[in-house]
Design brief:
single chain, about 130 residues, mainly alpha, 2 domains, 7 helices, elongated
């Protein structure tokens, strides 16, 4: 089943279970995700991690009686909470920096000087006199 169907059926189930309804207007006001966005999801557009996360947080904050777990929505949409694109990008940068540090320390003194010089030039701190 697609992500939109999973999310919507989960929300409907929670609303039925706790005898509460949430309108598209309320979703729009609380989470910035209204009927148009949900219609896009229904027509096959996969909800983004950010949208699902935002919706889950807004529902948990403004409608605690529905007992919606934000991470449950992410899982319904096929995401793992740990798959946040910002976290993944940060971890990739950290790994790249670690690799660069290892290579730098393994380089000869002359190569280190060249690397430092290149970085300074990129940052605009290089000596133009050369």
């Amino acid at each position: 089943m697609d992500a939109a169907y999973q999310i919507i059926s989960y929300l409907h189930g929670q609303m039925r279970m706790y005898n509460r309804s949430v309108t598209y207007a309320e979703l729009e006001r609380r989470a910035g995700i209204g009927e148009q966005r949900i219609s896009q999801w229904k027509s096959g557009t996969r909800p983004s991690y950010h949208d699902v996360q935002k919706l889950g947080r807004a529902l948990a904050q403004h409608y605690p009686e529905l007992r919606i777990e934000p991470y449950a929505l992410l899982r319904k949409a096929g995401y793992e909470p740990e798959s946040d694109p910002a976290v993944i990008a940060f971890e990739k940068d950290v790994r790249a920096w670690d690799e660069l540090t290892v290579k730098f320390h393994a380089a000869s003194q002359y190569d280190r000087f060249k690397v430092i010089r290149a970085v300074e030039e990129v940052l605009g701190k290089g000596d133009s006199a050369g």
